[in-house]
Design brief:
Blueprint lengths: L9 H28 L24 E7 L2 E7 L5 E5 L13 H16 L5 H14 L3 H13 L4 H31 L1
Antiparallel strand pairs: 1-2, 2-3
Helix pairs in contact: 3-4, 3-5
Length: 187
């Protein structure tokens, strides 16, 4: 069945098109202004304020969890009595972290064992650790390894070069992984 006239006029079509564009523009502008006015809305806080009384009875070398925005925080009292508070989220995998003292001691024992091996000088072991941490995108590990390397006498230039080597190695693996796909694409 053919109609003699259109169910929608050109004017209605253009008015609807313009109205939709105007609604989208206003919505986008409102969203941008809201994000500008409230930049931390929905973002995890950079710091939290804790009540000291809640943590005074904590034994040395133990941890107590607390809420840090939408994730868990860990209040850690070291063996020497000093305290630190950490966000309980892994920096490169974004999974929740649980503190187990036995694991920390095992890590320390393992690191000592590796550093005592005679074939690779300690300086190179520090640089390898930094490069691996950078390659797997672990900010916390990279920072800790860099501080340890600096204390062991590794220069800033050597640390920077290790990071450049890690970047190059990572880029090479990305390129090598993609070559096969490119070859298929070019066929």
């Amino acid at each position: 069945m053919k109609l003699r006239f259109s169910l929608i006029s050109r004017r209605i079509f253009l008015n609807t098109l313009f109205g939709g564009w105007l609604a989208a523009f206003c919505s986008g502008t409102f969203y941008a202004l809201t994000r500008f006015a409230f930049p931390t809305l929905g973002k995890e806080p950079d710091f939290v304020v804790l009540n000291r009384k809640d943590f005074e009875d904590l034994a040395n070398n133990s941890v107590k969890p607390f809420p840090w925005g939408g994730v868990v925080g860990l209040y850690f009292k070291k063996i020497d009595g000093s305290i630190i508070a950490l966000k309980g989220v892994c920096t490169h995998m974004e999974c929740n972290v649980a503190y187990k003292p036995a694991f920390v001691f095992e890590q320390a024992r393992s690191k000592k064992f590796v550093m005592e091996q005679p074939h690779i000088p300690p300086k190179y072991k520090h640089l390898i650790s930094i490069a691996v941490a950078a390659a797997v995108e672990s900010r916390m590990c990279a920072t800790v390894f860099m501080k340890g390397a600096a204390k062991a006498g590794v220069s800033k230039e050597e640390i920077a070069e290790a990071i450049m080597v890690a970047r190059q190695a990572r880029a090479s693996t990305i390129f090598a992984t993609a070559v096969e796909g490119f070859e298929e694409l070019l066929k």
